[in-house]
Recover the amino acids of this structure.
């Protein structure tokens, strides 16, 4: 059995705990200080009832509710709370998975009283952090995650063999993790409207109509294995960073500075985990180009921000317009392997020494204390 | 027991430069004197003096820690019953500061 913990409106709840004046009020947490030029990172339940959701531009949110309370996100606060909850869950001595900043999964094997365990976890989280969590318990990860969404906030849903079909029959298929608007429409086209419709389809039908994704969906729904084959100390499949600019820009220096900054952030995380990447993926969004994403795989793996940036710039040259207007951009490195190559040439050795020194300084004095000069251009537009 | 998956230390906001370097009255960052209990590896601030005025802390509404390189900063949102403040303790330099007045 998997017990899935999903924190309720995590960032917004923490801000309400910090500032009791905000309790019971519609509140949004914005990703930037400027409350009209950012997006909603998290919304309190009071704001959600007004139709405000994560990812919405704050301008739109304020149009829906002019009296909305606004707090700029303070990542450190949320990360620390998440780490503390993770630490607290470790004490339960079950295998534990850190699914995301506000989601945790416990493999509770065959705990005799999962309901009591869930209640105990909820109470401990509330007493220590003054925030709430919803919990789903089911035979596998996908169903337990679904369960955690069904009775929010502060709810517990236990999906057993006895109530499985009745719960799935009441749940639209879009509620399932991994089913979005587009895939939901595809499922509707096949006559699959509820989670039960999907659950009752056989593997062959899903594979034939939806390909590998359909088969994976079938396997995830019907499995009862522990943590879906999760491995200890697995290496990530990809590492990426993206950013939405305050307004669309076509200044080449400014765009390049942002690509360099995101490349340095990705490279620093690669080096932290002793990884190198063969594939670089660049994602751009702008009024002329829409969503542009392209990647290239190189035989020479790298963990150097300068190199990643230049690979991105070569990909960017394929967008069409020479200086496209860019609103958002992202850099992702994939095809990762553990770094094993030793530098052969003097210039390579010098470069590696430089990166080691930069990492040392950033570890000692805080990330971003030293960075390539071009990044200064990212501050000016 | 084993664990795996998401790494919270991979923060996306660490390197992003500030959009505005000008003085922000919401970011005071001024040194203050604090009377606090240190008990069982936890810190309980009780009162602080700022600009020659003593502020008695009625309640610590939330506390968390931040890392800046090798330094750990313990942050507290505290209420005097009238206003809400964010104060912090640098665990390396052993100094306190008032970060901001929370609206």
């Amino acid at each position: 059995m998997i017990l899935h913990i999903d924190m309720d409106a995590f960032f917004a709840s923490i801000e309400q705990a910090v500032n009791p004046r905000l309790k019971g009020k519609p509140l949004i947490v914005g990703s930037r200080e400027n409350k009209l030029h950012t997006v909603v990172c998290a919304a309190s339940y009071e704001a959600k009832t007004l139709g405000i959701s994560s990812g919405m531009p704050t301008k739109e949110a304020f149009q829906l509710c002019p009296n909305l309370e606004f707090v700029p996100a303070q990542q450190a606060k949320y990360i620390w709370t998440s780490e503390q909850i993770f630490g607290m869950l470790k004490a339960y001595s079950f295998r534990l998975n850190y699914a995301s900043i506000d989601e945790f999964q416990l493999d509770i094997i065959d705990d005799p009283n999962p309901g009591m365990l869930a209640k105990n976890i909820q109470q401990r989280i509330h007493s220590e952090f003054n925030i709430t969590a919803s919990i789903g318990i089911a035979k596998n990860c996908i169903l337990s995650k679904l369960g955690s969404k069904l009775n929010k906030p502060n709810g517990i849903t236990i999906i057993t063999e006895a109530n499985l079909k009745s719960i799935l029959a009441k749940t639209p298929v879009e509620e399932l993790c991994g089913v979005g608007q587009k895939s939901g429409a595809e499922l509707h086209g096949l006559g699959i409207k509820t989670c039960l419709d999907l659950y009752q389809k056989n593997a062959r039908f899903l594979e034939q109509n939806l390909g590998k994704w359909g088969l994976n969906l079938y396997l995830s729904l019907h499995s009862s294995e522990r943590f879906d084959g999760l491995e200890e100390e697995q290496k990530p499949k990809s590492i990426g960073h993206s950013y939405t600019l305050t307004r669309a820009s076509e200044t080449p220096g400014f765009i390049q500075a942002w690509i360099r900054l995101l490349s340095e952030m990705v490279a620093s995380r690669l080096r932290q985990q002793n990884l190198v990447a063969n594939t670089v993926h660049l994602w751009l969004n702008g009024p002329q180009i829409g969503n542009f994403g392209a990647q290239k795989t190189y035989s020479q793996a790298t963990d150097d921000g300068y190199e990643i940036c230049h690979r991105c710039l070569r990909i960017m040259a394929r967008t069409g317009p020479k200086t496209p207007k860019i609103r958002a951009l992202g850099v992702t490195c994939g095809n990762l392997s553990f770094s094993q190559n030793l530098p052969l040439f003097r210039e390579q050795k010098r470069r590696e020494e430089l990166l080691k020194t930069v990492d040392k300084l950033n570890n000692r004095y805080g990330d971003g204390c030293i960075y390539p000069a071009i990044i200064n251009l990212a501050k000016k537009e | 027991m084993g664990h795996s998956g998401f790494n919270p230390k991979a923060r996306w906001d660490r390197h992003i430069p500030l959009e505005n370097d000008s003085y922000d009255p919401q970011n005071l960052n001024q040194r203050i004197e604090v009377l606090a209990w240190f008990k069982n590896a936890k810190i309980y601030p009780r009162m602080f003096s700022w600009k020659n005025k003593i502020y008695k802390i009625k309640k610590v509404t939330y506390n968390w820690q931040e890392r800046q390189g090798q330094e750990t900063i313990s942050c507290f949102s505290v209420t005097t019953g009238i206003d809400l403040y964010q104060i912090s303790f640098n665990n390396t330099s052993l100094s306190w500061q008032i970060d901001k007045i929370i609206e």
